[in-house]
Amino acid sequence: MDRWILSSLSTVVRSCNEALERYDFQSVTSAIYSFWLYDFCDVYLEAVKPKFTEVKSGGTELSSRQQEHLDVLLFCVEIGLRLLGPFMPFLTEELWQRLPIFGDELHMRPPSICVAPYPHGRVK
Question: Is a pLDDT exceeding 80 seen at residue 103?
Answer without folding.
Answer: no
